[in-house]
Amino acid sequence: MSDDCIFCSIVAGDIPARTVRETDDVLAFLDANPLSRGHALVIPKSHAQHVGDLDDDLAGELFAVVTDLVPHIGSTVGADGANVGINDGEAAGQEVPHVHVHVIPRFEGDGGAPLHAVGGERPDLSDDELDAVAEAIAE
Ligand code: AMP
Ligand code: ZN
């Protein structure tokens, strides 16, 4: 638990939230400023800022709740699809420094954009450069 973390305060019950799912180590609640009807956040109950900080068991439980909730929320609100994503780090737009998976139901013609829209200017990488990036990551 982090003292000045709003999501830790939700887990502790000090701040109200519209809970939609709870397991031993994971909590899901509606986003207070939803991008669409049913927009939910799925979080580990323990404090961690980055996905890379989660151990495998917790990451698995987190993703299991996500995969269960996505179709459930979708059928509940009558969505046609969903965007599922994490803003990991300030540079990626993370405002609350406690890992949270956004589940954003999407509707035909809702005027939104795909996840591809989150990127900045696209790099112009040659095949060789792509090969080098892949090799470096795979090492
Ligand atoms: P991010 O930019 O990925 O850190 O997103 C943080 C999200 O948390 C935003 O979509 C906010 O609307 C949401 N949020 C912030 N405070 C609360 C709260 N008390 N209850 C529910 N959602 C919240
Ligand atoms: Zn926290």
From TrEMBL:
<protein>
    <submittedName>
        <fullName>HIT family protein</fullName>
        <ecNumber>2.1.1.-</ecNumber>
    </submittedName>
</protein>
<dbReference type="InterPro" id="IPR001310">
    <property type="entry name" value="Histidine_triad_HIT"/>
</dbReference>
<keyword id="KW-0808">Transferase</keyword>
<dbReference type="InterPro" id="IPR011146">
    <property type="entry name" value="HIT-like"/>
</dbReference>
<dbReference type="GO" id="GO:0008168">
    <property type="term" value="F:methyltransferase activity"/>
</dbReference>
<feature type="domain" description="HIT">
    <location>
        <begin position="6"/>
        <end position="113"/>
    </location>
</feature>
<keyword id="KW-0489">Methyltransferase</keyword>
<dbReference type="GO" id="GO:0032259">
    <property type="term" value="P:methylation"/>
</dbReference>
<dbReference type="Pfam" id="PF01230">
    <property type="entry name" value="HIT"/>
</dbReference>
<dbReference type="InterPro" id="IPR036265">
    <property type="entry name" value="HIT-like_sf"/>
</dbReference>
<dbReference type="InterPro" id="IPR039384">
    <property type="entry name" value="HINT"/>
</dbReference>
<feature type="short sequence motif" description="Histidine triad motif">
    <location>
        <begin position="98"/>
        <end position="102"/>
    </location>
</feature>
<dbReference type="InterPro" id="IPR019808">
    <property type="entry name" value="Histidine_triad_CS"/>
</dbReference>
<feature type="active site" description="Tele-AMP-histidine intermediate">
    <location>
        <position position="100"/>
    </location>
</feature>
